[in-house]
Amino acid sequence: MRAAGWAAEGGRCRRLAVGLVDAGHARAVVPLVEHAHRLADAAVQYVDDSDGWLGDISGRLGALHLRACAEGGVDPVALARRLADLELTSELDTFHWAASTHAAVLGTEGLTEYRGIIESRWQALGPGTDEWSTERFRVRRR
């Protein structure tokens, strides 16, 4: 499948989600964007993205997620847990460097939770883990 057609459908869905945020339903959009990200991330394996459509979708989803979180008044600790998971398990860059991009909505409480999760994952890797493993790379660059 070519990514352009796939991206067009995703763009329509994203515009609907933006409309929901504009209408005051930001909190409801947060899990929708996270789900859309998971779908796009799963598509990486099956979509010809030589033109960079998935990267574009990823960036737009990330911006929409941040806006929805800021306007939706989400629980910072629960958000930190989901962001850490999304960041550590995704190929797309939607949530990479999430502690930085979402710092204002995470606040001190969320950032503390996020840091604890990342540090725990780092400790769990231990010295025997391959230096170039995907897991070690993802945790190290947080």
Protein traits:
single chain, 142 residues, mainly alpha, 7 helices, flat
Q: What secondary-structure arrangement, pairings included, does this model have?
A:
Layout: H1 3-22, H2 26-43, H3 53-72, H4 76-89, H5 98-101, H6 103-125, H7 134-140
Task: Describe the fold and architecture.
- The chain is flat, with a radius of gyration of 16 Å.
- It is built from seven helices and no strands.
- It is an all-alpha fold.
- The longest helix is centred in the last third of the chain and has 23 residues, at 103-125.
- The chain has one domain (3-140).
- It starts with a helix and ends with a helix.
Write a brief caption for the model.
The protein has 142 residues and is mainly α. The protein has helices spanning 3-22, 26-43, 53-72, 76-89, 98-101, 103-125, 134-140.
State the total count of DSSP E strands. Answer: 0
Helix percent reads over 70%
Mean pLDDT: 82
Low-confidence spans: pLDDT under 50, at least 5 residues?
Answer: none
Largest sheet: none
Distance between the termini: 32 Å
Number of helices: 7
* Shape summary: flat
Strand content bin: under 5%
Count of spatially separate domains: 1
Helix-strand sequence: HHHHHHH
Structural class: mainly alpha
How large, in whole angstroms, is the Cα Rg? Answer: 16 Å
